[in-house]
Design brief:
8 strands, four-stranded antiparallel β-sheet, globular, mainly beta
Amino acid sequence: MEHAVMLLVRIHGPLNTIEVDTLLDSSATGCFVDKSWALDRRSKLSKLVEPVPVLNVDGTRNQEGDIMHYVLLTIGIGKHAEKLSQQAFLNVLTKTM
């Protein structure tokens, strides 16, 4: 990812606060968190009223299926922290480089 913008972000969870490297994607249509990552940190998963379809760049449905849950997160960058104004959707994210 030559032109990727990475940020060090603090995520305040039910057990502790952790720092993680995050990818800033200015064309993303939402905030996405890996489901297994959220489960490992004991985040409270809430079921969506309606599933959110996940589409690949070419418009086909993603093989991992629809997004079924979300979490509410408080994040911090530098000295600033705030609750996300939207749900962080849970999905199976894979790292590609």
